[in-house]
Amino acid sequence: MDIVLIDTDVIVDFFFDRKPFSKHAATILSWCEEKRIVGYITPVICSNTYYLLRQTATHEKVMSKLSQLLSIVDIIQMDGQVVKSALSSNFNDFEDALQHYAAVSHGKINVILTRNTKDFRNSEIGVMTPENYIHTKEFKKE
Description:
Rossmann fold, 7 helices, 5-stranded parallel beta sheet, alpha/beta
């Protein structure tokens, strides 16, 4: 079973129903709920999602949505070593570096799912868009 890190853009695609990406985000999250894959997010992803959702909804509604999300995905730890690795990395985006090194530190993440694959070109872990990931898994089923 794959263990995946789901990046902020995928979570936000789902919550804001950003077409055409929300369809793939919904599939990824439903696979987490069905336990076909194990999904993780980081504390940074959780915070970013809260901030973005809070622009259009009350604190209570956002907290409810985050609680629902956390019923199907888990949070990986981030510590000082993750931050130090991100600071000294070749990543152009510090936030993406944090996500990457948290996934590396976890030790069991197979793939990072993001629409922003270009910013993860220095990744030690496989990186795929949700759409490509879904097509790969559906192809293997046949």
